[in-house]
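task queued by scheduler; priority normal; single chain, no ligands, no partner chains; default sampling; output format set to structure tokens
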Amino acid sequence: MEPMLPSLISGELQDLGIELSEKAAHLAGMIHPVVQLSIGGLVRSMNCYYSNQIEGHDTHPRDIDRALKGDFSTEPRKRDLQLEAKAHILLQEKIDTLEIEQPVSTGYIKWLHREFCENLPDNLLWVENSDTKEKIRVEPGEFRKTMVSVGRHIPPQVQNIPAFLNRFEDAYNPAKLGRMERFIAAAASHHRLLWIHPFIDGNGRVARLFSHSYLKAIGIGSSLWSASRGLARNSGEYKDLLNAADASRQGDLDGRGSLSQKGLEEFCKFFLTICIDQVTFMESLMKPGELTRRIEIFTEEEVRAKRLLKGSFPLIREALLMGEFERGKAATLTGYKERQARNVLKELVEKGLLISKTEKGSVRLGFPVNVVERWFPNLYPAS
């Protein structure tokens, strides 16, 4: 599996690591922390959608939204995919909200697989051995018990998986790496985990969730952006570069390990570039003035169409800029009398544009699926 990192980190890789770090820090400071909580939910749904796309599972954003509300299709296949989407989002929410101590440990990688698979319907827990056609059940959190092939790549033998993961943990432990090495390790570890292919199924999704965890652990990742959108939109190049990094060393000028150093370095460049692109994309959507203006235009159109009451925008704007506000401020913000202001607030809550933990508690901004394209254009591909 060597090299675990390029032997010499090129100037280009260093520049990419620094750029990603700086852009991620800037993005995190653009939005009120309370608003980030709501945007985090939106990004988790987006991440799930694009991760499903990579797996060849087409789940519409509205079906994902319905799944989160417990509204499942009566069509078996669609229902299964909704349950899969919900399992992904629930797991990513845990990643976003829990402290991650050892994202590279074998225990953590097993935990990711177990948490995801335990919430899947039984139909999605069976795979077929391409050689024997035998049906094999996926055991949540358990390593594969049979040899497999992934394209031209033959992953390690079953009995060697623990040893490879021990080396993985040792090589990519952030505590043992310098700042720049951590950035490169975030990219390299994504490939090397896929190369080990520890599970009979679910390795791609686990690798993407692992990378999300690792980026968060080294202080770059957050609930505000996801690499999966970029990987899905460049899926051909993603898979080609994964394959190239699987290759054996190509002569004396290609490092000293068993695998191609050039292949690993090219994948690292690609992965970091994708991350930068996605942070930049989310940054463009979060610019306060432009986001406020898009929300204002949307609200004005809804008021003219009589789908929202006049006075709605001042309440939405307050939630965007201040994070949250007490319900008693509605009259002051709208300039209306108490009863009329309460009606405006009530409608916004009913439509999910404002949300609250309790019936009388403070309210914060919500992002129902029907406003996403207007407020955050191009988050999803045009339907």
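post-processing summary
- The two ends are 41 Å apart (CA to CA).
- The chain is about 60% helix and 5% strand.
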